[in-house]
Design a protein that fits this description.
Blueprint lengths: L7 H4 L1 E6 L2 H15 L3 H4 L2 H15 L2 E3 L10 H14 L1 E7 L6 E4 L2 E5 L8 E8 L2 E8 L3 E5 L13 H5 L1 H17 L4 E4 L7 H12 L29 E4 L5 H17 L5 H4 L3 H31 L4 E3 L1 H5 L2 H13 L4 H8 L4
Helix pairs in contact: 4-5, 4-9, 7-9, 13-14
Length: about 350
Amino acid sequence: MDFSSFKFWDRAEKRAATDSYGSAVVSAILSAAQNHVSGAAVQTAAVEFGAGLIERSFAVSGVTPEHLARTALTPLTLATMGRRLALTGNSVWAIDTSRGQLELLPAANYHIAGGARESSWRYELHLDGPSGTEVRKLPSRAVIHVRIGASVERPWQGVSPIENAGISSSLLGRIEGRLSEEANTRAGYLLTLPDGVGDDTVEGLKSDLGTMAGGLYAIETTAMGHGQGQRAAPHGDLDLKRLGATFPESNIALRRDVGENVLSCMGIPSSLFSGTDGATVREGFRMVLVSCLQPLANLIVAELSKKLEQPIEIDFQKLHAADIQARARSYANLIATGMDKEEALEISGLTA
C-alpha cells in the first residue's frame, strides 16, 4: 500500500503527558462521559459472556488482504474492536504510518467537533501508554471510528446494546450487587445446648466440634435431657441451624431471565449462555454468526475500506468449520431439492 497519500501525520498535533493523579481522574471522567456504560451491568457474568464471545470470535476471524493481519488488523486489534463495540458502541483508532507501515492505535478517550458532514469532523484522541498519554488532533479521514446504535440526533456517537437495554441492564446490575452483598455475609452452623449442662461438658463439646475435620467423635446422648428426664430432651441429639446467605429462588430466576434479555439485546441467543442441549447450542451459535458477528464485521469492513483506501474483508470461516457436519447436511438437503451446486455451497457456507 502507498502511504504517501496519508499526509495528515505531518500535520497532526502531538503532545506527551506524563501520568499524574489529576490526569487519571480526568481520564476516568472522560471515559464515563463518552462510554455511557453502567459499571454494575458491565461486571455481570451475562455481559462478560456476550462481550467475550464477540471478542474471541473476531480474534479467530480471517482478514483479506492477508498482510494486514500481520500489521494493522491483527487478531488483538480485531478482538478489541469487537469488545469495544459490544461494551461501549464505539471503537476509535488513530491511523499511524510514522514507522513506514500501517498501524492502528487505540484511543482510550476522544472528543469530536465539526458539522453535519463526517468529512468536517476533527478528532482529539487520547492514546494511553504505560507511563504517559499522547494526544493527537486528527481529521476524520485519519481516524477509524466504528459505531453502532447511533441516533440521528447524535450520529457521531455510538451507543452500546447494554445502554440501549436500559432498565434491563440496570436491573441486572442491581441484582448482581444484591446477591454479592448477601454472599459476603458470615455463614456457619448454630448448635443449641440445653440449660443445666456443666461448663466442663460444654467446653469439651466446643473443643471437639472445633477440631472434628471430618473425624468421628463419640459424645453423650441428650435423650435423657442431661439428667432432667426425657421430657426435657430435645427432638434429636444434635439440631443444627445454619446461619448465612439464603438466596430466594425468585431472585435467582430473575437474574437469569434479565441476563438472557441483555444477551438478546447484544444479538446473542440465551441458549448459548444457559443451554444444555447440543443441537440448541449449535443453532444458537449459527444465529450469533448471522445476527451479531457478521453485521458487526460489515460495519468494521466498511469503515476500514473507506479510510484505508483499499477493499478489506473479514470472514469467520474458522468458526464455520466448527459446524461442518451441519453444513454438510444442509448442502445435501439443498442439492436434493434441485438447487445448483455452487449456489448450495455458498448458502451452506462451504465455499472457500
